[in-house]
Write a structure and sequence with these properties.
The complex is a heterodimer of chains A (258) and B (465).
Chain A: H1 5-11, E1 17-28, E2 31-42, E3 46-50, H2 57-64, E4 72-77, E5 80-81, H3 86-95, E6 96-99, H4 111-121, H5 127-140, H6 156-169, E7 174-178, H7 186-201, E8 205-209, H8 213-219, E9 222-227, E10 230-235, H9 237-242, H10 247-256
Chain B: H1 29-36, H2 41-67, H3 81-84, H4 92-104, H5 112-130, H6 137-157, H7 167-170, E1 182-183, E2 186-187, H8 188-213, H9 217-240, H10 256-281, H11 286-301, H12 304-318, H13 327-352, H14 356-364, H15 369-384, H16 386-399, H17 411-419, H18 429-460
Antiparallel strand pairs in B: 1-2
The chains are: A alpha/beta (258), B mainly alpha (465).
Subcellular location (chain B): Cell inner membrane; Cell membrane
Membrane topology (chain B): Multi-pass membrane protein
Main location (chain B): membrane
Chain lengths: 258, 465
């Protein structure tokens, strides 16, 4: 297992529990999206969350960096409890990186500027150092030669790898992936998954919402199945795929695994 | 699988085709003309109409402004067809004779160098700011937006304002300070008042911040208040100090000077205010939102002429007697607030076009709200609405002519005043004057338009796929 020194440095001295969710509930108006979700993620764990669309899996991980607000229950991320306190929210977001389905790169900035923006303005890192860190991670995702292009000039797969590098530049302790390969052409899925596998091998704590079951088998410690806002099954991957307990899980797996 | 086993009906190409040039009928000028000018019946009609229009409009204009025009002369006789002996077009000597009035208004002749310095300084600072390749943009911007207005203000008015009261003075605490005492031409009462008021304001801000945002926020609030007041103090000091220039009242200003003062101030003030108002209108804080909406809708709902009229003739009736505000300043503030409201709606249009994902991307990186707006959302939103922003700038530039109704003589006003000179009463004076004014306005507006298009093109490079 190759341990990336920069990631390892960020790991040192972190609390043992990465994420702790107790009795988390969330509503969109009248609609009950998350129902009594309890979940603990230990440092270094890789979780894959799957489930039918509308089951609340994206909402769940978006609650972890407070892109969505939960209305009931407790969420503690990296030892910090998420409340209305904006300072704490920003503190959590500094430690939690996120990759989105549609990349959400900043189109008016170059790849390098995308990567150095947050380290320079949030971590107050000097420009030169921020650029060194950015180039380190751009090399890691294998696109250092595109550093001075704009996101619009890159393919979808390249953009998603840049998005991963951008998140890593903040040296997060936890990475969230919200369907990172769903918006990609089939031939670009692999390059993004390879990057994620490598990241997993470096020991990053990861929560991935994805339907890439091959990825789940390869790197996940646990697979979580959600339906109607609840976690209805959680198991280590081999058991999860070979011996699903719940009827709903069986149906879902039979539909996505041909 | 080898080639021999394939059936002849399989539609699979055995070699890769090289790219071929387009067919001959798709190239050459004849083809172009047919495609773009004479492609269909409506196209033919439009082309013919266009040609007719060009021939109907351009030759008479050239005839009037160039061929038949009179270029030299000392009074109206040079431009009278009876005296000259041929039809007379534009009477350019009229413009040469009135050029000072058109440029400076009634600004005293001996002091006009000050206006020239302001013009020159403005050009010297603005040009490098507009050209991307020139370095030191930050310094340049500070000089142009921060230092230049103060220098221009002192140069144009003459400074030495003799300020007497600050906040406490106006609030009725006159007695606290020694009235009349001066040090180096500066009123002790005013500056003592300023220092005490600043200290009180800083304390007040600290207390408020502590109350609203908790004990940690007090020091920061006090520091911010003091630095804002420090800048205000520096500006006031520059205006108050005696630099030895003869004071020139603003009612003597006129012509292009007034046009530029109003337009440039309006333009530079309307963009930041417009951005703040647009952000305010989208704010989640109900009070901020309501105030922004009220402000925008009020200023958009009243005509500029009403605004100027109120500012000039009604406002003095409401203000306390000791407080008088300069007439030109009132017009400038009116124009700037008016333009801000329009700008706010343009900027809001841009903000609405930014997808939610951009906000989320910024938030997920831990950028706090203000940085998210400044670094991610606004640069993209403003770029999208450059055409609308420049549209507003151009509209504002031309709207400045309305100050004529409150007896401020901008370029057009000075021109109209010049028409009344019996020495230059000729049949074509009016056309020459308005033609010239039109050209001047066109040069400024077209310049803004071209610059904005170049800017769009430059910024758009990032979007090319």
């Amino acid at each position: 297992m190759s341990i990336d020194p920069v990631i390892a440095q960020a790991e040192a001295g972190a609390p043992k529990l990465a994420v702790e969710m107790v009795g988390v509930n969330k509503w969109y108006g009248q609609f009950h999206v998350l129902r009594d979700v309890n979940l603990t993620v230990e440092r270094g764990e890789r979780l894959v969350i799957c489930g039918p669309s509308g089951s609340g899996k994206s909402t769940l991980i978006r609650c972890i960096n407070r892109l969505e607000e939960h209305q009931k229950g407790r969420i503690v991320v990296d030892g910090i409890e998420l409340t209305d306190d904006l300072k704490r929210i920003d503190e959590v977001r500094r430690e939690v990186g996120m990759c989105f389905q549609h990349f959400n790169l900043f189109p008016h900035l170059t790849i390098l500027e995308n990567c150095t923006l947050a380290p320079m303005w949030v971590r107050k890192m000097p420009k030169k150092e921020a650029e060194e860190v950015a180039m380190h991670f751009l090399e890691k995702v294998k696109i250092p030669h595109q550093a001075h292009k704009y996101p619009g000039q890159l393919s979808g797969g390249q953009q998603q790898r840049v998005a991963i590098a951008r998140a890593l530049c903040m040296r997060p302790r936890i990475m969230l992936f919200d369907e990172p390969t769903s918006a990609l052409d089939p031939e670009m899925v692999k390059e993004v998954l390879d990057t994620m596998v490598e990241l997993a091998q470096d020991g990053m704590t990861m929560l991935c919402v994805t339907h890439e079951m091959g990825f789940a088998r390869q790197v996940a410690n646990r697979v979580i199945f959600m339906d109607a806002g609840q976690i209805i099954e959680m198991n280590e991957p081999n058991a999860f795929f070979s011996n699903p307990q719940h009827e709903r899980t069986k149906l879902f797996l039979s539909q996505i695994l041909h | 699988m080898s080639d021999q086993t394939l059936s002849p009906h399989v539609f699979v190409s055995s070699v890769l085709l090289e790219p071929a040039p387009p067919p001959v009928s798709d190239r050459g000028p004849v083809r172009w003309a047919r495609a773009h000018l004479f492609g269909s019946v409506p196209q033919v009609l439009l082309t013919l109409f266009g040609i007719w229009l060009v021939f109907a409009v351009i030759p008479p204009l050239v005839q009037f402004f160039l061929i038949d025009a009179v270029w030299e002369g000392t009074d109206r006789k040079a431009c009278l067809p009876a005296d000259v002996g041929h039809p007379v077009g534009a009477c350019w000597p009229f413009i040469w004779a009135k050029i000072n009035q058109l440029t400076y208004g009634f600004y005293p002749a001996d002091e006009r160098w000050r206006v020239n310095v302001v013009y020159a300084l403005g050009a010297v600072l603005l040009l490098p700011l507009l050209i991307q390749k020139v370095p030191y943009k930050r310094l340049n911007a500070i000089l142009f937006f921060g230092v230049y207005p103060v220098v221009a203000f002192v140069l144009l008015t003459g400074g030495n304002f003799g300020l007497k009261r600050f906040l406490l003075g106006y609030l009725g605490f006159d007695g606290l300070f020694p009235i009349g005492a001066t040090v180096a031409g500066l009123s002790v009462a005013f500056w003592a008042d300023f220092v005490v008021s600043s200290a009180l304001l800083a304390l007040g801000a600290a207390a408020l911040a502590r109350f609203v945002a908790g004990p940690g926020a007090g020091l920061g609030a006090a520091r911010n208040t003091l630095s804002a007041l420090g800048i205000l103090g520096a500006v006031l000091l520059a205006a108050d100090i005696d630099v030895g220039l003869q004071p020139v009242e603003t009612r003597l200003w006129g012509g292009l000077l007034v046009t530029l003062v109003i337009a440039v101030t309006g333009i530079t003030a309307s963009l930041p205010f417009g951005i703040l108002l647009a952000l305010g209108r989208r704010s989640h804080l109900p009070l901020v939102k309501i105030c922004s909406i009220l402000f925008i809708e009020f200023w958009r709902g009243v005509p500029l002429i009403t605004v100027l009229f109120f500012a000039t003739y009604m406002l003095p009736l409401f203000l306390p007697g000791q407080l008088t505000i300069d007439g030109l300043l009132r017009a400038v503030v009116g124009v700037a607030l008016f333009a801000s409201a329009y700008m706010a709606e343009v900027v809001r249009g841009g903000l609405q076009a930014i997808p939610k994902g951009q906000y989320e991307g910024a938030m997920a990186l831990g950028l706090p709200g203000s940085l998210k707006m400044r670094l991610v959302v606004l640069p993209q939103a403003l770029k999208l609405v450059i055409p609308g922003i420049v549209n507003n700038f151009i509209g504002l530039f031309k709207d400045t002519t309305l100050v004529l109704i409150v007896s401020i003589f901008d370029l057009l006003g000075a021109m109209r005043a010049a028409f009344t000179d019996p020495n230059w009463a000729t049949p074509t004076t009016l056309f020459t004057g308005f033609g010239f004014a039109g050209i001047v306005y066109f040069v400024f507006c077209f310049g803004m338009s071209r610059y904005s298009m170049a800017l769009e093109k430059r910024l758009d490079r990032a979007r090319h796929h």
